[in-house]
Design goal:
Shape: elongated
Number of helices: 6
Number of strands: 0
Structural class: mainly alpha
Order of helices and strands: HHHHHH
Largest sheet: none
Radius of gyration: 21 Å
Strand content: under 5%
Helix content: 55-70%
Length: 141
């Protein structure tokens, strides 16, 4: 079993040290775990994108709850949570994410996540299609 499989933190520290040596001109290419280094580098971007989408999904879900149950005692909390998720998403956003984030898909997921009732009340109708754009979700307004 490799170091990568048993302790990824130790592996990452070891590999980053090796890469620093390669960058400095040391000829140690055979010691670098290239296959896993490449996979990990790819996964970093995927995880960042996943985290961004998760924050946007949570924002949309809380916005939908506030719209579907406008008389609920939790509306202010949902609106506050939506603002927090949107703010966190704006802080993490990288320009390359723009073409990869499908707001309509996230909205459909938020619709599916809406509860059937809240405090015994069914939701008011909410739009089937997302009317908010990515830029609006990431704005401070």
């Amino acid at each position: 079993m490799s170091e990568y499989e048993t302790d990824v933190v130790l592996w990452s520290e070891h590999q980053s040290a090796l890469l620093r040596r390669v960058a400095a001109g040391d000829r140690i290419n055979d010691q670098v775990d290239w296959e896993n280094v490449i996979e990990e580098i790819e996964s970093v971007g995927k995880e960042q994108l996943h985290a961004e989408e998760s924050l946007l999904l949570q924002a949309l879900l809380h916005m939908l709850k506030a719209e579907a149950w406008p008389l609920s005692r939790d509306v202010q909390h949902w609106q506050s949570e939506a603002r927090l998720f949107r703010s966190q998403a704006a802080l993490r956003f990288a320009p390359s994410m723009r073409q990869r984030i499908d707001v309509a898909r996230l909205y459909r997921a938020a619709l599916r996540a809406l509860p059937e009732t809240m405090d015994g009340q069914p939701p008011l109708p909410v739009p089937d299609n997302c009317s908010v754009r990515l830029d609006e979700l990431l704005s401070e307004d």
